[in-house]
Amino acid sequence: MADRIEKRARFDLIRYANVWEDAQVLCAALRPAPGQRILSIASAGDNSFSLLSHGAHVLAVDLSPAQLNLVELKKTAVRHLDYETALTFLGVRPSASRLAVYGHLAKHLSDQAREFWGDRPEAIEGGVIHHGKFESYFHLFRRRVLPLVHGRRMVERLLEEKDEAARRKFYGRVWDTWRWKLLFRVFFSRFTMGRLGRDPEFFRYVEGSVAERILGRTRYALTVLPPHANPYVDYILTGSFTHTLPHWLRPEVFPKVRENLDRLTLFEGSVEPVAEAEWLARGEGFDGFNLSDIFEYMDPATSAQVYGRLLATARPGARFAYWNMLAPRRLAPSFPGRVRPLDDEAGQLFARDLAFFYSAFVIDEVVDEVTG
Predict the structure, then answer these.
(1) Number of domains comprising the chain
(2) Which of 12, 49, 183, 364 sits a CA distance of 20 to 30 A from 321?
(3) Among the residues of the chain, which ranges form H helices?
(4) pTM value?
(5) Which structural domain, as residue segments, surrounds residue 361?
(6) Tens digit of pLDDT for each residue in 300-332?
């Protein structure tokens, strides 16, 4: 498998300080429950925590040691801080004492994580949920680009609660100006996003206009979906979770995450070798796979190979959930009789997906027992 993203992109930095995928859609798709084992792309940890809140055992995997250091710090904050202190320490609420709080948390971190964060006091002081390359990209948009189109008062009007008819009217008559469309197409182009937000290699298999497709999804998020209840829109336009929190940080979910922290295990490496090693060590498979959008970064043949290796570690009835952002990837047809696509269910969930960058959400279900 020569076409591996770890050979083509950097993984020594925090690329995502938050997970930009809808945890509620993911949990509805995978149906996590006590006794289940779920393999989850770690990223910034948020969706792994959400899966954990349902009582499942979660193995969070990532190629990036930096991302895993972030997840470990979040996990430590959840375990050792009360709810309000955790929100202020992470960066959701203003604080002038994050470094002091970190001093109490540091002794609970692994040596690797403690060394990583010890070298980055500015990230701690500024709130770690803001210390990702993708978040910096959105901050640049909010500070430098958006003010050329709409001021703060207009943003507040957009985020006011409205019904769908009022949202459509506001977007069409007030928000969707020629300047908005022009600057959006420039800032969210393949070139700009690849260099300032993601990585150019993440777009290797994308065809067509990146900006036009994201603009269409943004229109959907600001009209059909309610922006006042969307944490992703909130963060992009205000610079934090000012009006609504991501799922794992909501007051009714946070205690459940804390209660189940011992069921979370972190792994560094590629997802399929980790799955195979765990499967062989325990003699049991997985009930669910949160695969983020990893197939977006592989050619179709490599995607099928990775999927097949994961399939060999799946229990009967296990579910795969993954997103397509810009490159279409649907793997079930490569394994007829072994998995079935749940297109209707996936489509219904995608229709309410608040993480609006993606073009599709895919759910596949194992229909027979697969052995290695």
Answers:
(1) 2
(2) 12
(3) 23-30, 46-52, 65-80, 83-90, 98-105, 111-118, 121-126, 133-140, 152-159, 164-170, 178-187, 190-192, 210-223, 231-238, 254-259, 271-282, 300-311, 343-350
(4) 0.90
(5) 5-80+248-366
(6) 889 999 999 999 999 999 999 999 877 778 999
